[in-house]
What does this fold into?
Amino acid sequence: MKMTFRWYGDSDPVTLKNIKQIPGMVGIVSAIYDIPVGEAWPMDKIVALKNKVEEHGLKLSVIESVPVHEDIKLGQSTRDQYIENYKTTIRRLGEAGIKVICYNFMPVFDWTRSDLAYELPDGSNALIFDEKIVEKMAPSTGELNLEYFLKEIIPVAAEEDVKMAIHPDDPPWPIFGLSRIITNEDNLERLLKLVDNSYNGLTLCSGSLGVSKDSDMARLARRFGKRIHFSHMRNVKITGAKSFEEAAHPSQHGSLDMVEILKAYYEVGFDGPMRPDHRRMIWGETGKAGYGL
Ligand code: DNO
It folds into this structure.
């Protein structure tokens, strides 16, 4: 496995220089943050990001994430234009030599609204919550929308040798009434079968699925082995049926057997990028929540 670290760009208090000084670190996980969701990423911005990372002696290993437009998740009639743009982004990243893309299919979440820019008769925009729209994200419909999306993009990803790695829903249960579709082992298996092609793969995130006692992360690593394209290692301390605290990475600090999970990756010969996920802030550090040094 190749050790990587998340970097949020120039505004990240953790700099590329800092990351380069961490022993064993070879790659960067990053994204371009100023492109509106749904637009194709311009090649010049991709190349600029890649060059900046390489100037620090690191490799741009993974893009986390190329966000999926809400219309695709909802299955709206406007989705095809956004899917075309997504394909363009995959092609450009592939051409630039960036071969793993992490993404997720979680519906609008932060504001718990069905539309963040609903157009009112006077042309102004408002936040709305429409139950009928939220229902379109219900697990069965959400899965159909994901299938439609995957059937379109995976052939392009395969052509470009870019591995698509879906991130599980975090936390893996419905939140504020919004549904979740990638929450457990069965869902992962179904997802992989929706398009049974190795380019349709997983970001196996120990801390997302691992907050549920039913998910044995080492077993999942062994089971899905070759379809895992990216690994997030996060430890959590389960404090209740649906409650948890994020913990320091060594096994003894949380509920996950991190050593056993790593052994499982080793056994299946995982040689993709892996990054520590959701670190704590220590020594009074102020960084992006979960992403201090
Ligand atoms: C949390 C991350 C997620 C992840 C996205 C991937 O720290 O693991 O926010 O980046 O869900 O699309």
Observations:
- The CA atoms of residues 202 and 229 lie 6 Å apart.
